[in-house]
Amino acid sequence: MAVNNPYQAYQQNQVQTLSQEKLVLMLYDGALRFCRQGLAAMEKKDYAGVSNNLGRVQDILSELMVTLNRDVGEIAENLYKLYDFMYRHLVQANVKKSATMINEVIDLLQQLRDTWEEATRIYQTHDYRTRIGMNWQG
């Protein structure tokens, strides 16, 4: 598919050249942004906006679920279950028009995002030390 808009081409290239770690962080950031936009729409009683934004979060959660390698062990399996829980929780939040339920998902996503960012930082620091021959713990 050809991209005619130079900005879209730039964005597509940026996403395609990101590391897996940064892509996951972007997905978490997007999910959080759309959850918050869904909450804002709910406050305005814009239920189409709520549904649209929560649907986008569900799309992100689906992407995280299908790209997760569940064969690596218990952590991956538990993460899958957590994504599935959040997905279903958002479906119910949309049906019930529950800001509380959306906030619960925001809290979970924020914790996952912060943990992922910290793990990535530690991994990159360790990887850098290994590449330059530092084997010490610090």
UniProtKB/TrEMBL annotation:
GO terms for biological process: bacterial-type flagellum assembly; bacterial-type flagellum-dependent cell motility. It comes from the Bacteria. Keywords: Bacterial flagellum biogenesis, Cell projection, Chaperone, Cilium, Cytoplasm, Flagellum. It is found in: Cytoplasm, Cytosol. GO terms for cellular component: cytosol. The keyword Chaperone applies. It holds the Pfam family FliS. The keyword Metal-binding does not apply. InterPro entries: FliS, FliS_sf. PANTHER family: FLAGELLAR SECRETION CHAPERONE FLIS (PTHR34773). Belongs to the FliS family. This is Flagellar secretion chaperone FliS. It comes from Neomoorella stamsii. The gene is fliS.
